Amino acid sequence: MIRRRIRFASLVLVVCLAACGGSTSPADNQTQIPVSCPASAPKEGATSARCPLEGLECEYGPSADPSCNALVICSAQAWASTRLGACTTSPECPTSYAQAPGASCTASDTCAYLQGQCICIGGADTTLNCTTPQPGCPSIRPHIGSACDEDSQQCTYGVAVGFDLVCLDGVWRRAAFQGG
User: Fold this and answer.
1) Measured on CA atoms in the order 172, 173, 176, 177, is the torsion positive or negative?
2) Sequential pLDDT tens for the chain (180 residues)
């Protein structure tokens, strides 16, 4: 009698899970949950703003140079603020990306634009050399932590940290293949 009740209870549980969209298969438990950054930058240590994935990085700010923007990282179920480095965009940069390639510059010039990064190269006759994203990549560098569609897509927007991105699990992340 007890075995019959246990079987009946197990059957009811399986039917209920299936009807409610639940999972009865261990393989289903590996389904990826979409991860996204909050719409606005969470405060340091905030736990109320959903911190969905350990190590998730979210970039906030208007600059084309990710080192000039705020970066928050999901760590231990809370948000921690950091920077990718010193904000390096030179005030001597041309005002638009279209004017930058081949423009004369000084050796320390690094120019960030929404379309890519330009750095000063050369000897006595220095000019800006600009990076443009690969075909199929967004023409404007997405923020780290923003949504993306093509998993494993890698896009290079410059040589500094944060300019190389890869789409993983629907989110743009800093890529391991960074040039600088």
Assistant:
1) positive
2) 444 433 333 333 333 333 333 333 333 444 455 577 888 888 877 766 677 788 899 999 988 888 889 999 988 888 888 888 788 778 889 999 999 999 998 877 888 888 888 988 876 678 999 988 889 999 899 999 999 999 999 998 887 767 889 999 899 999 875 443
Do residues 100 and 130 lie in contact, with contact meaning Cβ atoms separated by under 8 Å? yes
Length of the chain: 180
Query: Rounded CA gap, 59 and 103, in Å?
Result: 29
Q: Is 130 helix (H, G, I), strand (E, B) or coil?
A: strand
Distance CA(87)–CA(110), nearest Å, equals: 10
Residue 58: phi, psi to the nearest 5?
A: -130, 125
- Strands lying side by side in the sheet with 127-130: 110-113, 116-121, 127-130
At 130, the amino acid letter reads: C
Cα within 13 Å of Cα(26), Cβ side: 0
**40 residue type, one letter:** S
Whether the CA torsion 16, 17, 19, 25 is positive or negative: it is negative
**Helix or strand run (H / E) with residue 4:** helix 2-19
Helix (H, G, I), strand (E, B) or coil at 78: strand
